Each structure stands twice: as C-alpha cells, then as structure tokens.
From TrEMBL:
G-protein coupled receptors family 1 profile domain ranges (all copies): 46-292
Entry-linked Pfam families: 7tm_4
Membrane topology value: Multi-pass membrane protein
One of the record's GO cellular component terms: plasma membrane
Protein name in the entry: Olfactory receptor
Record's keyword annotation contains Lipoprotein: no
Organism for this UniProt entry: Cricetulus griseus
Taxonomic lineage of the native organism: Eukaryota, Metazoa, Chordata, Craniata, Vertebrata
Source superkingdom: Eukaryota
Keywords in alphabetical order: Cell membrane, G-protein coupled receptor, Membrane, Olfaction, Receptor, Sensory transduction, Transducer, Transmembrane, Transmembrane helix
Length: 318
C-alpha cells in the first residue's frame, strides 16, 4: 500500500472495503470469538442493569445517576457500532463492509465516542458542584439544567462526527480497499484515498485532538480542585467523595488514555492501533458498570433492593 495511484477528484470506484481484522490466524480468531462474545454480553447486560437500577431504584432525581444512566446507554450503543460486526467477522474468511456501511460505522464510532467524552466531562462538573458547592448543588444542577447539558453532549457528538464523515465522504477511493483494522475509522480509511489527504488529516486531527485534549484538561482541573477541597471535609465526607470520584477518575483514565494515543497525533497508523481500539470500544464499556457498581455504595444498595424486590415477587407468585 506504499505506492498510491492518484486519480481525478470525485472518482469513486470502491463499493466495499475489506477488513484485515484482529488476526489472520484461524485459531486465534476462534479464541477471540469466544472472548469478545462474552465481553459484549457483559457490556449489554451490565449497562442494562445499571439503567434498570437507576430507573427502578428511583435514583433518577440525582443528577449524578441521571448522567450515569445515559452513560450506560451510550456505552451500549458505542460498543454495538463495532463489536457485533467484529465478532461475526471472526468466523468468516473474507471480512467485507459496504462503502455506505463503512461511512455509517465511522459516523457511529465518532458520534457515540464523542458523546461519551462530553458526558464524562459533565459528570466531572456535577461532582465539582456537589463537593465544592454542596449548599447550592440542587439549585445549580436542577433538572432543566441537566437536560440542557445532556442535549449539549448529544449535539456536540453529532457536530463532531458529521464533520469527520463530511471530510472523508468527499474523498475519491479508486483502488486499494483493504483496511488494516476491524472497523472503519478515519486514519485507516484516509490511507486508501486516491488523493493527497494531508489537509484533511490535519483537520481531522485538529477536530478530534481539540475535543480529546480540551475535555481531558477540564477533567484534570475539575478533579484536582475536588481533591484539594476534600482537605476541608470531615473524614466521612472525604470517604464518600473519594468513593464516587474514584470511580469517575478510573473511567476517565481508562477511556482517555487510548483515545489520546489514537487521535492526538498526525495522520498516521500503527500496528498497535487495533489493540488500542479494542480497549476504548470494548474494554472500557465493559468495565464501566463494574467500576461504578463496586466503587459506589448507593448503586450497590439500589441493586440489593432491586434483587430483594425480585425475590419477594417470585415468592409471592409461588
């Protein structure tokens, strides 16, 4: 793929792309099929459990759990854009996706990925207000403001992803159609374009990099201020704050580390990209429910009540 044939702008002879997938070794693919099928099942069931717990446990009135509910929903959608296709492809020799399907997948990855970044940022702001301005918390984080913030995360995600797709769609693809990846992402797809993609690559990197770096800096500042302010709290107050903030910080590190490696760099691809992508498209959505459940006493109590209600209901039926 080192040599590239340039064609007239606008010519597009490619109707489908071929993925190289995670591995070309059939034995490795069989192991990956079992492993990632299990991971995806955990993602769906774990995040649905959190959503059910928040709704049935009447936690929706708390802004933190209001956003946690939508974070779980976005995690399911985000992983569903890539995981089912990847799992099915592990069983077939030729892994293809149509041109339209590729563009839709690219849109979905960036839409839900960017929305998740913004939701994590909003959740950091929520924790900042709760710990640093507790007396004004419910006034500042009222339902109307929470709804506006949530709408902003979705609009921001849409604008980011539509820019990424618009930059790729106008490029001509006339020859090579093999993608060294397991899903359509901007950098691997740009390598196949039959024209100079330097300017597009710079804009793509600026778009993704600004969002990733900007959000990460805001998150670092928020949690630094929170941790500094905890010195004034009582021992019990510090314990509760660290319990909720600890889970948030863990999710931020797990999610932003791989994203930073992938999108805050020039338009280049590395052999490690596929494994790094697995981390933020599958591993992070799978770990989120475990992190928020194990680190949060309120969620665990709500789950116990939900389980008790289920057991008592089944006993009554008998």
């Amino acid at each position: 793929m080192a040599s590239r044939t340039y064609s007239i702008e606008g010519v597009n002879n490619v109707t489908e792309f071929i993925f190289w997938g995670l591995s070309q070794n059939p034995e490795v693919e069989e192991v990956c099929f079992v492993l990632f099928s299990f991971f995806y099942m955990v993602i769906v069931l774990g995040n649905l459990l959190i959503m059910l717990t928040v709704c049935v446990g009447n936690l929706f009135k708390s802004p933190m759990y209001f956003f946690l509910n939508f974070l779980s929903f976005v995690d399911i959608c985000y992983s569903s854009v890539t995981a089912p296709k990847m799992i099915v492809d592990l069983l077939v020799k030729k892994k293809t996706i149509s041109y339209v399907g590729c563009m839709l997948q690219l849109f979905g990855v960036h839409f839900f990925g960017c929305t998740e970044i913004f939701i994590l940022t909003v959740m950091a702001y929520d924790r900042y207000v709760a710990i640093c301005k507790p007396l004004h918390y419910m006034t500042i984080m009222d339902r109307e403001r929470c709804n506006k913030m949530l709408l902003g995360t979705w609009v921001g995600g849409f604008l980011h992803s539509i820019i990424q797709v618009a930059l790729v769609v106008q490029l001509p693809f006339c020859g090579p159609n093999e993608i060294d990846h397991y899903f359509c992402d901007v950098h691997p797809v740009l390598k196949l374009a039959c024209t100079d993609t330097y300017i597009v690559g710079v804009v793509v990197t600026a778009n993704s990099g600004t969002i990733a770096l900007g959000s990460f800096v805001i998150l670092l500042i928020s949690y630094t201020v929170i941790l500094v302010s905890l010195r004034k709290q009582s021992a019990e107050g510090r314990r509760k704050a660290l319990s909720t903030c600890g889970s948030h910080i863990a999710v931020v590190i797990i999610f932003f580390g791989p994203c930073t490696f992938m999108y805050m760099r020039p338009d280049t691809t590395f052999s490690e990209d596929k494994m790094v992508a697995v981390f933020y498209t599958i591993i992070t959505p799978m770990l989120n429910p475990l992190i928020y459940t194990l680190r949060n006493a309120e969620v665990k109590n709500a789950m116990r009540k939900l389980w008790t209600r289920k057991v008592s209901w089944e006993t009554t039926r008998k």
